[in-house]
C-alpha cells in the first residue's frame, strides 16, 4: 500500500514538472494543443525578448534600412538582454560600416546665450540664471582659427551653433555664417554643419549652396514627453525644419536623440517609452538621419533639470545598440555627457554601434573630452579617424549599405 502511494505521488510530481514517461500504468491524459502555425511561431518569437534583437539584426543585415518600424518592435529590441542587444548591435554595425572608423567632429558656439526658448536643459536660455551671458556672433578670425585647430587635431567635421529660435530677421548674421561655411568647407576641406534653430526654405537653400554638409535640429525626446521639456516651439515645428533641410539636399542630424542633425537627449526625466518614441520617430522618417547624436543630459545649475539623476552607461548602450539596429547606415554619435564616461565605458558604446564623437574641450557651453584624451583613447582601442565623406565617391550596396572603395578613393580599410 505504501509503495503504491509513493508511486502515485512520484507520478504526480513528474506530471507537474511536465515530464513524459512510460509506465505500466497509463498516465492521466490531458489534451495536447496543436502545433503552432509558422506565422504564430514567428509572432511569438518577436514577442519574446531574448530573440527580438537577433531577428531584427538579421533582417537589417539581410534587407538594409527600413522605415516601417512599429513602436512595439523597437520596444522589444530595447528590452532584449543587454549582452544580446550589444552583440547584435555590433553585428549590424560591422556589416554596414568599417567598425574601426570613428568620425571626429568639433562643435563651436558662434553665438552664445540670450536665447528666447525655454528648453529645460539648456543653460543658454535667457529664462534661467545659469551664468551664461548673451554674446554677439563671433568674428571671422575667431571662428576660422577654431576650425583650423580642430582640423589639425584630427576633426573632419566642424559644427557651428547659434543660440537662436530661428533665422528670421537675422540677414546680416546669417550672411556672415554663410561666409564661414564657404571658407571652412571649400578653403579647409572640412565637412561643415550648423545648428541655428528653425529654418526657412530660402535659408536652407542658401546653406546648401554655400557648401553645408549637415544641419542639426533636435527632437530631444518623444512627442508625448516633449511638452514637459519645451513649450516655446512645437514638435511639429521641429519636424517641419527637418523636412525643409532634407528637401534642400542637406543631410539631417537629429537625436538626443536628434536628426543630423536631430539629436536625442536621455536623462530629461523621460520614461523608457519616451526613448522608444524618439527612436520610432527617427527610424520612420521618409529618410533616416545621416547622423543620430545620442546625448546624456549634462545637468546645469540654474536650469529646471539641474537635479536630474545622471544617465548610466547601460542606458547609453541600450540606446546606441537599438539605434544602430533600427538605422543601420546612420552615424551614431556620442555627444553631450560623454566626458563623464570612462574609456572602458566608451569602449562599450563603440562596440554597441557608436561611430562618431564630438571632440574638443567644450560642447557649446558644457565640458567635453579634450583632443589629446581622445587621441590617446583611439590608440588604446585601435580606432582610426574616419575621413570626410564629401569629395570621395562612395558606392553603397543598396541591399546592405556596406561602404565599398572605388579606385583612387581615400578610405582606409580596417586591418
From TrEMBL:
The segments labelled Disordered in the record are 23-44
**What's the cofactor?**
[4Fe-4S] cluster; [2Fe-2S] cluster
Gene Ontology terms, MF aspect: 2 iron, 2 sulfur cluster binding; 4 iron, 4 sulfur cluster binding; biotin synthase activity; metal ion binding
Instruction: Quote the EC number.
Output: 2.8.1.6
Q: Pfam families, alphabetically?
A: BATS, Radical_SAM
Keywords carried by this UniProt record: 2Fe-2S, 4Fe-4S, Biotin biosynthesis, Iron, Iron-sulfur, Metal-binding, S-adenosyl-L-methionine, Transferase
Pathway field: Cofactor biosynthesis; biotin biosynthesis; biotin from 7,8-diaminononanoate: step 2/2
Q: The Radical SAM core domain covers which part of the protein?
A: 100-338
Similarity comment: family membership: Belongs to the radical SAM superfamily. Biotin synthase family.
Protein name per Swiss-Prot or TrEMBL: biotin synthase
Amino acid at each position: 500500500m505504501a509503495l503504491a502511494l509513493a508511486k502515485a505521488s512520484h507520478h504526480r510530481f513528474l506530471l507537474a514538472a511536465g515530464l513524459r514517461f512510460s509506465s505500466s500504468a497509463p498516465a492521466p491524459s490531458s489534451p495536447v494543443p496543436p502545433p503552432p502555425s509558422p506565422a504564430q511561431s514567428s509572432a511569438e518569437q518577436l514577442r519574446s525578448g531574448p530573440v527580438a534583437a537577433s531577428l531584427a539584426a538579421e533582417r537589417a543585415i539581410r534587407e538594409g534600412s527600413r522605415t516601417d518600424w512599429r513602436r512595439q518592435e523597437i520596444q522589444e529590441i530595447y528590452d532584449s538582454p543587454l549582452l544580446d542587444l550589444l552583440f547584435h548591435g555590433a553585428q549590424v554595425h560591422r556589416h554596414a560600416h568599417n567598425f574601426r572608423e570613428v568620425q571626429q567632429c568639433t562643435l563651436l558656439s558662434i553665438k552664445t546665450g540670450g536665447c528666447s526658448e525655454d528648453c529645460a536643459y539648456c543653460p543658454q536660455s535667457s529664462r534661467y540664471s545659469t551664468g551664461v551671458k548673451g554674446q554677439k556672433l563671433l568674428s571671422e578670425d575667431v571662428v576660422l582659427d577654431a576650425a583650423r585647430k580642430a582640423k589639425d587635431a584630427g576633426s573632419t567635421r566642424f559644427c557651428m551653433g547659434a543660440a537662436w529660435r530661428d533665422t528670421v530677421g537675422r540677414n546680416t548674421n546669417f550672411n556672415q555664417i554663410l561666409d564661414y561655411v564657404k571658407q571652412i568647407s571649400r578653403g579647409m576641406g572640412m565637412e561643415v554643419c550648423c545648428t541655428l534653430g528653425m529654418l526657412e526654405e530660402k535659408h536652407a537653400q542658401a546653406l546648401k549652396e554655400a557648401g553645408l554638409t549637415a544641419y542639426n535640429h533636435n527632437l530631444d525626446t518623444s512627442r508625448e514627453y516633449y511638452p514637459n521639456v519645451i513649450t516655446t516651439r512645437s514638435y511639429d515645428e521641429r519636424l517641419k525644419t527637418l523636412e525643409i533641410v532634407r528637401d534642400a539636399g542637406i543631410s539631417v542630424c537629429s537625436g538626443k536623440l536628434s536628426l543630423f542633425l536631430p539629436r536625442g537627449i536621455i536623462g530629461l526625466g523621460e520614461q523608457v517609452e519616451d526613448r522608444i518614441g524618439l527612436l520610432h520617430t527617427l527610424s520612420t522618417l521618409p529618410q533616416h538621419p545621416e547622423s543620430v547624436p545620442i546625448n546624456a543630459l549634462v545637468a546645469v545649475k540654474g536650469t529646471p533639470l539641474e537635479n536630474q539623476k545622471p544617465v548610466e552607461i547601460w542606458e547609453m548602450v541600450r540606446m546606441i545598440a537599438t539605434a544602430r539596429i533600427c538605422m543601420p547606415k546612420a552615424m551614431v554619435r556620442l555627444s553631450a555627457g560623454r566626458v563623464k564616461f570612462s574609456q572602458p565605458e566608451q569602449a562599450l558604446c563603440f562596440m554597441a554601434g557608436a561611430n562618431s564623437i564630438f571632440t574638443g574641450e567644450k560642447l557649446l557651453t558644457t565640458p567635453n573630452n579634450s583632443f589629446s584624451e581622445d587621441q590617446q583613447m583611439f590608440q588604446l582601442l585601435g580606432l582610426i579617424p574616419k575621413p570626410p565623406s564629401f569629395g570621395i565617391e562612395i558606392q553603397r550596396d543598396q541591399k546592405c549599405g556596406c561602404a565599398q572603395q572605388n579606385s583612387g578613393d581615400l578610405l582606409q580599410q580596417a586591418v
